[in-house]
Amino acid sequence: MPTWRYLLKMACYKPGLYALHAVLWGVFGLTALLAGLLTRAFFDTLTGHAHLPLGVTGLVVLMVVLAVGRVALWLTAGFIEILMRFTMSGLLRRNLLRYVLKRPGAQALPYSIGETISRFRDDAHEAEDKLDWSDEIVGQGLLAVGAFLVLLSINSLVALVTILPLLIVTIIARRASLTLGRYRDASSQASSQVTGAIGDILTAVQTVQAAGAEERAVARFRRLNEQRRKAMLTDRVATQALSAITSNAVSVGTGLIMLLAANSLRESSMTVGDFALFISYLSFIADFTSDLGRFLADYKQTGVAFARMNVLLNGASPDALVEATPLYLRGSLPAIASPVHEVSDKLALLEAKGLTYYHQQSRHGIAAIDLRLRRGSLTVVTGRTGSGKTTLLQTLLGLLPREKGEIRWNGKIVDDAAAFFVPPRIAYTAQVPRLFSETLKQNILLGLQENPQAVLAAVRGAVMEQDLQTLEAGLDTPVGTRGVKLSGGQIQRTAAARMLVRAAELLVIDDLSSALDVETERTLWEHIFAHEDATCLVVTHRRAALQRADHIIVLNDGRIDAEGTLDELLLSNEEMRRLWQDDYGNEPE
Ligand SMILES: Nc1ncnc2c1ncn2[C@@H]1O[C@H](COP(=O)(O)OP(=O)(O)OP(=O)(O)O)[C@@H](O)[C@H]1O
């Protein structure tokens, strides 16, 4: 989609605001032209070339009134401009966030976290900037043409000769715009790499320390900073050089006016007022030409910014970026509806046939997996590391986009698994749970309406009661960034409580065992299966769960190697026997 269409669609989001912005700045420009005419009248009255009824005093009063009016107009237009800028970049950022949240959750973002933030911040700002300029440049252009026509009517020769340097500069600026765009692109890339590196280093301080890689991390950071310094310097020098050429063109123009006007002044074909008007309008026209040059140079860059933001839309049409969406900038936000249990949500049977997904980078994954989960059953998925257990859960839940396969909930086909498999139908605990830097309770509720009894029941279910006593403020203890104040086991049990509080029809659990001791995990399973209706799909290698399982699926290299009960599999399947003996042999039965 061409850049102008993005800008047009942004303007159409709030056409009234955009039009008001255009009118206010247009009128502001017009007052600059009026000021020029008043200056001309002032000097002509002083030199006796004009005889206005207002007189010099009247003109001075008028100029003061105009100046005050301009200040008021500038403040009003500035306020509207800020409002419009926030609204327009807010629209882009909201749509970006919507699509980032819509993408299959287990698929990595196309940029690092730091770079993604830079797309949200810098690219949305770039687009906002260009929209702000788009109407101003048109208004400025119309007024500049008007100003030029006035100058032509006074003295066409002087007008044409003085405008010449500006035209030459405009052509140079147009030519330079491609090169400037390249420099700007390089400096923006270099900045986002630095932001990305800061994000990476800050989120992996422990890893960097443990690997003794501080020096190398700092050296890489220095290298990226040096690249950024060079790119920024080139960009700034080129931009400033162009701006110097443009502003000097005004001085050259003024010099030409002085040379040419001297004769006309002597011959009285030009008045001192005309001369003052020429000087005033010339800078007005020059401002327009230099702004136009910058606008054209930046326009290319804005296209690059839109293209980069598009990458975050995960294949959605480019229109999605500028789609009209409510922003709620004023007043309270709409209430978030709590999930409601519908009769159709009640699980009787969940079936999946032929589930297939291969990770893009490695081409590893799962193929042709069939599942049947009945109400009240425990299904365990097991297999050696890398056999595809996590990929299977994520593909079923729509966190990865399945390439083939069909899913049915109570016989009805599920098209959009990601939208369908949410509470109260399912609740999921990932292998590596994520906590936010909020209190323990907020991490468990994650936006759900508070129900103290349900929270306590979930905490008990997740075997966390004892832990609460050791935390300084119990459930109200802030857990720190990503839960750093909790142990690995506490983080996993918090995630389990988060799942349990949602009272979902189906619990999907990916390997809770890595940070839980055998006894704690055994108690956790007992709590979960105390509800006879509990339906669970669990990835685990723990005997406590395998022995309770109604059905076990053994995965090998992304395919089902065998399935059945533990006894059947121990008799018939070599892989199960190997896993049971080799991997689980150290645990108490
Ligand atoms: N994001 C990814 N990109 C590319 N390949 C991946 C990705 N995630 C997993 N894989 C590959 O897909 C295969 C299955 O991985 P998966 O995480 O599903 O295995 P798993 O059985 O859950 O392993 P574990 O028991 O170690 O958790 C592995 O070969 C793995 O290397």
UniProtKB/TrEMBL annotation:
It comes from Ktedonosporobacter rubrisoli. InterPro entries: AAA+_ATPase, ABC1_TM_dom, ABC1_TM_sf, ABC_transporter-like_ATP-bd, P-loop_NTPase, Type_1_exporter. This is ABC transporter ATP-binding protein. CDD domains: ABC_6TM_exporters (cd07346). The lineage of its organism: Bacteria, Bacillati, Chloroflexota, Ktedonobacteria, Ktedonobacterales. Pfam families: ABC_membrane, ABC_tran. Keywords: ATP-binding, Membrane, Nucleotide-binding, Transmembrane, Transmembrane helix. Residues 27-301 form the ABC transmembrane type-1 domain. It comes from the Bacteria. One of its GO terms (molecular function) is ABC-type transporter activity. It is a multi-pass membrane protein. Its main location: membrane.
